[in-house]
Amino acid sequence: MDVDVSTSVAGNKPQRIRRIQTVTLVLLFMAGIVNFLDRSSLSVAGEAIRSELGLSATEFGFLLSAFSLSYGFSQLPSGIL
User: Fold this and answer.
1) What pLDDT is recorded for position 19?
2) pTM above 0.70, yes or no
C-alpha cells in the first residue's frame, strides 16, 4: 500500500511551467503591441499637434527626433533590466 507521491507532484510541474510560459508570452506580446501603439501615436496625431501648437514641418520633425532620441536612450537602462 505504498503511494508514490513524487510522481504526482512531478507530473504537475511541467503543466504549471507550461502555463507560466504561456501567460508570460501573452503578456509580453500585449506589452509589445502597447509599445508599438504608443510610439506610433505621435506620428498619427502629428497634424493635430502641428496645427494646435503652430509648428512648422521642420519644428515638428525636431519634436519627433527629440522623442525618438530620448526613447532610444531610455532603452539602454531598460535593456539591462
Assistant:
1) 94
2) no
